[in-house]
Design a protein that fits this description.
This protein is an alpha+beta fold and 504 residues long. The protein contains 13 helices and 20 strands. The strands form 5 sheets. It has a 7-stranded antiparallel sheet, sandwiched between helices. It has a 5-stranded antiparallel sheet with strand order 5-6-12-8-9. Helix 11 packs antiparallel against helix 12 and helix 12 crosses helix 13. The structure holds flavin-adenine dinucleotide.
Length: 504
Amino acid sequence: MQIIEGKEKILSGYSAYLQDESKLSAGEIQYLAFPETEKDIAEFLKQMSGKNVSVTVSNGKTGVVGGAVPLSGALLSVEKMDKITDIKKIGDEWRVVCQAGTVLSELNKKIENYTFSNSEEYFYPVDVTETSTRIGGNVSTNASGERSFKYGSTRKWIRRLRIVLSTGDILEIERGKIFASKENEFEVTIANNKKITVKIPSYKMPSIKNAAGYYVKENMDLIDLFIGSEGTLGVVSEVEVALTKKPENVMALLAFFADEKDALSFFSSAKKELKTAIVFEYFDSGAFELLRPKLPELPEDKNSAIFFEAEFNDNTIDDISSIIEKLLKDNNSSMDNTWGGFEKKDMERIREIRHAIPETINEILAKRKQKFPNIHKISADIAVPDEKFSELIEYYKSILEPLKLQTTMFGHIGENHLHMNIIPRNDGEFSKAKELHFNFAKKAVSLGGTVSAEHGIGKIKHPYLEVMYGKDGLKQMAELKKSFDPKCILNRGNIFPEDLLCVK
Ligand SMILES: Cc1cc2nc3c(=O)[nH]c(=O)nc-3n(C[C@H](O)[C@H](O)[C@H](O)COP(=O)(O)OP(=O)(O)OC[C@H]3O[C@@H](n4cnc5c(N)ncnc54)[C@H](O)[C@@H]3O)c2cc1C
């Protein structure tokens, strides 16, 4: 295993490892390790634990909440552990076994080129937008994507994990084998038959798409505690994922509307009536303003859109087309105001449009940062239950419209999870946007929602998690972490503040 020692050496040759996409500033670190095997991970953790040095786990470095950014101590990058080791069938289910550093796009490529013995086509359905992410990172953040409306997030597809605890002990957890007791505890057996008791926090999770804090549920499966735990409980070394059958045919359509109300009303009906829908995404008028300079072909008289994909076959195509045409007409649009088709290139074109929004936001901010270096975008990652969604949208509008801030609301509307972005023009607007984000979090929680539906808490969203679960909820999470990581060396500062952990 390669270990780079000394902060100067790391800073001069390996500074890229001190970042992720949050652009949070790292602290100084003394060690950077590149394990190639699970044994390497265990040895490094034992060494660091012996020296009382904290360890941050890094993988694809695409996280947006600073989870892989070290505050001090050592960084363990699992990126060299990128092998796909098995494709197998267990009962009726096809599965892939891979190391934690496997790149998502490589996993997808391998599956696409594999000939399954029953001549069917399968795929791994978690479509994280950024495909340079790695599977261990996806597990640790419970990543999701556009298609999680139909297919769910990473959690749903994980069948087995191998985890290295900070003590160097290995845990192998198969789904369906270890459940919490009635007292909300796990009894976990580690090396030499040693048993640890793990108390599950008492807070109640919202039953919607959620990536905030530890997963907690009555009679829960131990594997679910590790999924989405942002590397605070152990280092994932190996992952077994399930595959599913590829849909026969998929249509991808981008329907334009002259009024945001029509777009939202179309979505609300289509969500009920289009039973084979896979994706629903929304683009508001702010998104159109951002995109127009790059995409002059966007219809001039339209200011919002819904992107959706639906599965079909020869028997269902006519019914599905009629439903779509009717819903468009009911909401003052039509197929003439809709782009898309059935080909891969149609879908890719629409996905490019979707991805142009965050890119454009980043370009605008890069320019503004030359004059106001401290500003960055404020992006709320909030979701609420179905029945509260329109109340949240009205709340955003009532607060934001009078302030004349530059905003855009776009994304995963299928799961009531829109990315509400404020793009500050100066320091004053930036301060205001931060204050508003806090209020948005409070509103979401009051509506039974979550402060993070997708990206997790990392090192930058602790105050929002406290709004959701209170100080006591955070303390209970910290206590749970100590059961697996008694010296509190792993991923300090992720999910909850360091001051709730053992002092270093
Ligand atoms: C342009 C863009 C688009 C994105 N789109 C999406 C999206 O559609 N859906 C979504 O959910 N997210 C999205 N993200 C966020 C990000 O891609 C995900 O959070 C992803 O799961 C991170 O994976 P990674 O390999 O880059 O992990 P990293 O950023 O390296 O790490 C993320 C967290 O996981 C921990 N970790 C990583 N590997 C391990 C391991 N083996 N064991 C223990 N802990 C580990 C790290 O310590 C850190 O806390 C996007 C990011 C960008 C920049």
